[in-house]
Sequence to fold (534 residues):
Amino acid sequence: MAYSNKVVDHFDNPRNMGSLDKSSDEVGTGIVGAPECGDVMKLQIQVENDRIVDAKFKTFGCGSAIASSSLATEWVKGMTIAEAVAIKNTDIVEELALPPVKIHCSVLAEEAIKAAIEDYQSKQASK
Amino acid sequence: MTGTGQQLYYFDNYASTRTDPRVVEAMLPYFSERYGNSNSRSHGFGWAAEEAIDLGRERVANLIGAKAAEVLFTSGGTESCNLAVFGVARMYAEKGKHIVTTAVEHRAVMDPIRALEREGWEVTYLPVDQTGLIDIDALKGAIRDDTTLVSVIFGNNEIGTIQDSAAIGAVCKEKGVIFHLDACMGLDTEVIDVDAHGVDLLSMSGHKIYGPKGIGALYVRRRRPRVRLQPMMLGGGQERGMRHGTLNTPGIAGMGMAAELCRLERDADKVRMTALRDRMYKAFMELDEVYLNGHPTQRLPGALNVSFNFIEGESLMMGMPDIAVSSGSACTSATLEPSHVMRALGVGEDLVHTSIRFSLGRFTTAAEVDHAIEQCMGSANKLRDMSPLWEMFKEGVDMSTIEWKHD
Fold:
């Protein structure tokens, strides 16, 4: 089964691959998945005045998992927290034309966004 | 291959091999010139087919030190394995209903045995060590009075580990139990002599030894002991009543030629393939955290199953799109589940998803190997940069202490 062109594009040219300073108060880090399941996504957001000004990812997983997280960072950049929380995995499935066996990759990407936001918010709350 | 508009490099010989051009040539007359049915005893078309089949049978028998009359033809390795397992189990059901096998069989053996289990047979699955070998003493201990069959894979299709078939055969002889050796993999480079190895049934596949797909053979011992099989299909009485159906003359001519070429060229092929395989392995080992799956030496010469830690196997393959390989969990990769073979080796849950299987063959060249090394190293480096696990490893995080968030 061949990958969709969009998955291949994100895999070949990943957007926002890398890391942000996880110790910064402005940065929220979400790590989801597990090595034994074959997928681990790390998604980070940098927030200023409730708006996501930067996002980075690193992913251990198949091409669809890499593409899902790459797309997620592309989308959340520039969004408010409320807008980013509203991203649904089905949006990712549709954009990347993921086949049924790869839907879990999009679920993971949605969870990674939410986990990063949660981390950011808990940092803010404990300030 | 250029079918997709792009040159592809073939490193999936354990999935299937290229049919040797000499094999194709041997098959061609039996499609449109000598197309008769070997069962037609009354005219030249039938005699020509029979002659081709006799020669094919002789050549396959020669490869394994058997007599021609002990070789029967099937539709492939899967049918041979099914016929061996079901055929013996059902024929000797009155003697006993216990089977001994291993945890690393191909599904063509494993699934028939599981089906028999559901029908009331008892099965002992021998574990393997981390190199993929069974323990001969454990085999001895597992055989009971009611054991009718020991079925063991010779060269493992996923990791290449070669079982000590001669020692297994000796135990089976001593205990008087029928021994089926699944030798679908390895006859292109390894010498198996059915008498020296004490084999009673031996499964073979055409397309794993540079022959065509859709043809296989099963060796069935005729003397000491005379092994009998209950057929799975009924019909025209071919193959001594054990495998009915019109014989596949072109396939048999091809498989015979393939066997003959293996017999003549296996020693040279083995030396060449081993050198190329080891060159590849050495190159990969220059990277950190790369592990070999399978036995370091007692292994088929084409087999290179390696885990690139912190890189998921499917993404590694995607990063080298012109290299045709399998993910380490070969046969089951469609299900995204780690294979039973990798689990049986005790490969850590985290490493299970990082394996990839290169399999070299007769036609693999040094230039292809060098290209594959370059592509694979490039893909591995790119994906490690992208891997959060590699980052943690480099930071010295002990990943076994992390509580991963599961779905």
Summary: Chain B has two domains: 9-16+266-401, 21-262. The longest strand of chain B covers residues 147-153. Chain B is about 40% helix and 15% strand. The mean pLDDT of chain B is 94.
